[in-house]
Design brief:
By secondary structure, the protein is an alpha/beta fold. It is built from eight helices and five strands.
């Protein structure tokens, strides 16, 4: 199973992603982890990514795509994977689709974990992290909405998008996710 997992900050994506990769025995591909691993391995593309990361700049799409291309060649991705934190833009989604089409391994599903904004705000406020101040939370949610809406429309148009309600207990939410995933597995 090859899937993209989309959800706003505070939706519980990290918790659910861990449960999904465990249940379906697929690789968990977090963009941040991949960037750090490529940098630490000192691969040519990892060193290029580090040029941006060390300055606190966003890593350009072409570099991220290349890191993902390298990572998808690893044996643990053969049985499937969950992409977490990628794609974030329409350009990245289109580049990913082109790469997957070229290798004959298209996506199976794009899962959106949907949580009402008020609930997200409450969850993030309770975490007590330094970047969880009300004005910062609002900015993050607006940025997420602005970046993600086009992606949701894009994948809806490809009939890959499935939305799951992310409110309830961890187990209730996971059961909803499993029901959707089992229908495409």
């Amino acid at each position: 199973m090859r899937l993209i997992f989309i959800g706003p900050p505070g939706a519980g994506k990290g918790t659910q992603a861990a449960k999904i990769v465990d249940r379906y025995r697929i690789a968990h591909l977090s963009t941040g982890d991949m960037l750090r691993a490529a940098r630490d391995a000192k691969t040519p593309i990892g060193l290029k990514a580090d040029e941006y990361m060390s300055k606190g700049e966003l890593v350009p799409d072409d570099v991220i795509i290349e890191i993902i291309r390298e990572r998808l060649r690893d044996p643990d991705c053969g049985g499937g994977y969950l992409l977490d934190g990628f794609p974030r833009t329409l350009g990245q989604a289109e580049a990913l689709d082109a790469m997957l089409a070229a290798s004959g391994t298209p996506l199976d599903i794009v899962l959106e974990l949907r949580v009402p904004e008020e609930e997200l705000f409450q969850r993030l406020s309770r975490r007590g992290r330094a970047d969880d101040k009300p004005e910062v939370i609002r900015q993050r949610l607006v940025a997420y909405r602005n970046q993600t809406e086009p992606l949701l429309q894009y994948y809806q148009g490809k009939n890959l998008l499935r939305s799951v309600e992310g409110v309830g207990t961890v187990e209730e939410i996971f059961e909803r996710l499993v029901k959707v995933l089992d229908s495409v597995a």
